[in-house]
Amino acid sequence: MTKFLFILLLVMGSFCSYGQTRITGQVTSGNSSEGLAGVTVLEKGNPTNGVATGADGRFSISVASPSSVLVFSFIGYETREVPVGNQQTINISLREDARALAEVVVTSFGREQESKSLTYAVQQVDAELIQETNQPNALNALRGRVAGVSIQSAGGAPGAGATIVIRGINSLNPNANNQPLFVVDGIPISNQTDLTGNRSGTDLTGGRAGDIFTNTNRFADINPDDIASISVLKGPAASALYGLRASNGAVIITTKSGQSGKTTFNFRTSASIDDVYRTPPMQTRYGRGFNGIYNPTDYRADGPPIPAGEPIYDQWDQVFRTGHQYQNNFSFSGGTEQATFYGSLGRLDQTGVVPNSDFDRTTVKITGSLKTSDRLKLDGSANYINSNGLNPRSGVGGSGVISYASRYAPDVDMRNYLNPDGTQLRYATQLDNPLFFAENAYQEEDLNRVIGNMGLNYKFTDWLSLDYRAGIDYYSNQRRIITRPTVLIAAGSRGSISEQNLTYQEINSNLLLTGDRQLSEDFGLTFSVGNQVTMINSTDIIGSGTNFILPDFNSVNNLGQYTVRSFPTERNIIGVFADAKLNFRETVFLNVTGRNDWSSTLPENNRSFFYPSVSLAYIFTETLGLSQNQIFNYGKLRASYAEVGKDAAPYLLGNYYTTQAPFLGVAGIRRSEVIGSETLRPERTKGIEMGVELGFLGSRLKLDATYAIQNSVDQIVPVPTSRPTGFTTFVTNAGEIQNRVLELILDAEVLRSENFKWNSIFNFTRLRGEVLSMPEGVDVITFQPESPWVKQRIQTGGRPGDWYGWELSRVNSPGNPADGRLVILNGYPDVNNNWKGTPLAQDTYIGNAFPDYEGGWNNSFSFKNFSFSFLFNFRKGGEAFDINRRMRYGSSGGEAPTGAETDLRNRLVIFDGVTNTGTIEAPVWVENTTPVVLDVATFYSQAFRYRLAKEFNGFQDASVLRLQNVSLSYSLPKTLLGKTPFTNVTASVTGNNLWMTSPFIGFDPEQSAYGPGSNVFGYVGTNIPATRSVYFGLNFTF
Amino acid sequence: MRKLLYSTAIALGTLFLGACGDLLDVNSDPGRVSPEEATLPTLLPSAQRFTANTQYGAAQYGVQYPQYLTGQAIGQFTPYGFDQLWNPFYTDAFPTLQDMINRAGEVGAYNYSGIAKTLLALNLMTVTDIYGDAPYSQANQGTANLYPCYDKMEDLYRVHIIKLLDEALADLARPLPARQDLRNVQNDLIYGGVLTQWTKAVRAIRARYFLHLSEKDPALLATAAQEAAASFGSIADDLQLSFEMQNANPWFGFLGSPGAKPMQPSSYVVDLLSGRGGRFQGVADPRLPIYMTRTTPNQTTDIGLTPGRLVGDQPTVNVNMTSTSWHTRAIAPILFITYAETQFIIAEALFTTNRAGAHAAYLRGIEASMAKVGVPVAQMSAYLANPAVALTPATLTLQDIMLQKYLALYMQIETWTDMRRYQYSQTVYPRLEKPVINQLPGNPWVQRSNLADEEPGVNTCLPSGVTQTTPLWLFQ
What we know:
Number of strands of chain B: 6
Radius of gyration of chain B: 26 Å
Number of strands of chain A: 59
Largest sheet of chain A: 22 strands, antiparallel, barrel
Oligomer: heterodimer
């Protein structure tokens, strides 16, 4: 260490002060008399001579001569130059640079960096924008605000998770987790989504089975009111320093901390009204019965037409009710020059829009910092979270509240579902009542989490400092999944319960040595070297079983048959890294990083891996002398190349045996179906990024455009193998995916006057993924949860999210008058050119689950004490498969359709198309004249005739324009508050998801049926729908 | 302060350097068993259960082909790759059985290897009867061969299955292993470790094998009869796996529970059992109410679903498989091969050479079938005494043998092999009709499984030109 410092000193050159003239003074902020800490005071032309102001804003510096000029600069303030002259005391105030303030972003290791020196794409969202949405899950508040980032919520169930994907899917594995790393105050925390149910030992199954309880992503535990800002580091260059866990990008959260000065208290309260406003249209013509025969004990909608005057019950009105969220948050902060503190207490109570669903969350956070000397600063924070959730079963598959409701005839009063003896009033043996089901098939969970960290910062000199920070994230999540024997899905098992106890513990230790020197007049250097140790342990113990002993006793102790399974994991990562930032006249910025990681999850020979990055930014307007230009004042070009390595999940190497559940009193073992390569290598993500930032009209209009190409190579993929190998899955390095993304951000200060301000930010993302290569011998990886409906295929040359299915057959014979018309076979439209003998296995490409482009447009206005904002987001293109729509058509043989599209029935029709009277080779097309009857038995329930074609089966354009957020607030004038203890009182009304327009028929085309733990997009329609929420809030500061 | 920092730095440095190795050597799953820890007695119960899953899986949707049940699109001959057979055999049963054979060979535990080879031969024969060509000699090699080629059905029959069956007989006759802990077969869920029972089971499987192969070599009929005679002596010997309430028979969860009924008994089997079929006219079979349940107790006629119709298409259908039907009860066994089947093998094999022997075996087969499912003795005697059933050696026809075998082997996939051996002959199976909606072009009978759905795309060594309409080698 000493040697290193010595060399450094030599490199930097000697710096001695001759002590000719000593200047002292104080720097204050704006019009206030409060001192401004941390302001850089530099002697112009002598970059080695500089100091920073103390906590009170005071400074003392020696300068060479009276002709010296002092430069005062501070992030977020306008820089001022003051000639020394004969002064010995210089007291100045720096003006806040309102536009510049937003240009400070938090990057790696919580360091604030001026955006002009950034060499890669980072986008920051500030606290107000997050808090004004009132979203209890802060991730949802980012939706539509960040270019290159796609956020999807798993639905409107209380506590439902949300998925964030930065710059596209980069794994061939449909079950892989593509989530970025979440870092709070410099320490990574878990954003895991722990899926419900048993695991196959290795966590390869991910979300494949669908997440029937839309479990939450763990970042949602963070109280949004504690957040000061969120920065999204999008590419590998931005996240290289966080190492392998940031290979999908990083989300950097800074939480609020105390400020020296008067202690302030803040109390915020809000209440919401939540409802489901967009539901699929249902037919109301045909009532209960089957084959046209009325049957009062049937639920199926295949009876005769409902007589006039009979009551009609909307299926959705019966299932959905109004939900509420009550959020209360109390916080206090303050401090002295030596110590600051911040504390908060937050509480959320939510009732869901379906029966038997609620969620509550209590958070407590304290943060403090202490300066023991000018050199040493200590800080720490502790955050405790407790949440409790209750949700009925929904999700992929036929058994859920939503899918049940969608199958009921419109003349059945679902709310009348109990017999006098308390048993379920069933309309037929084959379907449960959704309301009864909600009360008898559900998950309840309880989470306790502690996130804490402590840090110290020691300044060796004014340019060299050491930062050490250690943090822990620990949670324990207890889940109980109850399926009472009274519901049909448990009839075979006579009831089942699963009690799952998950714990997760992550300990991080970061050591960082940072130097910041102006090397000469032209060159400045910031460098850091660091070490990071991450230790992750998790346990997952599931006691589950079947055969209820007593009907209502909700405990695993009530089971006649049970097994206990334990899935412990341990994963440790050690990293060392170096980061050097060199700037030339604050005009050209060069950033070089290198990192080496050692991961416990890779084979010993491959566990150490190095990856570099280099990036460059050039503010050409400086060179051109345009910085004061009235019209075009800022222009920057960026370019970077970076790699990030990525390790495997624990225990993927080689092969294991697993124990089996006891059978006839004997438990056996079996070889696992998964075998892992013994020579697994780390994955790599390689990215090139180019960007341009332009500022016009004094940066009132800013454009930021980024184009990035990211290749994920050597992916660690569970390759599906031919089962005759004895294994289903071979975990190996294979395949490559490329994502090309164009991100545009247009930020305009449209109006700026004393009383009225209007800011408008527009962002746009166009993303294209492409599969460049597949694992050897594997042509295609198919994801098909709903046989035989549409499927997603990953194959070379395709894109992730490619849909394959069957289209209606059309005549393809240019010039022929029949060209383009439907092919009719036996009176019905033909599918997939089946008339030519094309087998269904040869299906065709029909679309992609990902949009052509997406974005958001936010406008915020302030007028005197009012502020108003609205956010639209949009996606164009991309198709979704509505699993629920398939059910509304009649889900299987014997089910009757309920969707509005099936209103047309029991009548003779002649399909508008042509039939072939020639041969397959030489078709002769004549007008179809065969009348057929459209009815349930021969049409709606027949896959070939109706439901197989993508035009009918629920496959739809998922384009949407959504009014994501509207917020109006009013602050009481200061004059009114003068005699009260309050310094600020604000009342607000906020709406989320208020309106949307989409060609999609159904609930919501953007609400994935698969949870945040999976990589599958485009399947929708089975979860509790996203709600429209209107919040009324009050905020008091005193 | 400086001292503090240095000592902190040194402490941290020591901690990290010293702990590095330990931190990184943690990639061995504490929750799972290593290959070295696996043992024969713990593999055996898994192998037996996987065999039951394989046999069940072959029948789960496959029972629509011999028209026991119908009501799914598969019953209309839409493409079907028998995944429910392919997956449990290749992923579960075969690797576990092969693992046992390898491990037993290393330690000379021929008692275990005899059992494993018996079950592997049984399963492999089921697989080849359905797929024809199937991976065997290149299979089960893990990453050493990720693209196993398919063995010809002829080779599977003439080389591999018989080799397993011969070795199984030989192994079971070998001296017990020297190792005390392996002398008695433990955890044998089927025969409780009694090797003589396993020898009978090998004989029964050999009888089925030679009967199949007699299609190519009629002289083997005699061998089939001999093997059958040397096999089971009563229904107590049946090779089957029983289930318990806590671990219900898979049929129970699939069809027995009151939830959705994906399939229903077909009109073919219901008509036969009701005395309305092409044979046994007017004879009500006492097995009918045991095999299935009438959903309309006040009706007196049982009506099955016409093959090719989907469940729900035909409102008049009034029979279902329920939790009280013999085969779909929670505790029902999965039958691998039964005494009744061996008697029908004898009857069929001796039909041309020893009509009296064939007739006697025919009656024993019916009796065994009825006793197995608990038909009361009086009803059984009445049924057997009915002239339409009792017959005489002179009046017995092949049709009687095969139809009674059809009824005895209700819900077993072996019947589909019988039907294809006779190529769905109307003389053997009178009034057997193709499904009313046949999705195979040209309205042919279904002859075999499609390629397993999962295979294309993951295996580069696939047979070409597979269609479900081409008869397999054995049936050509």
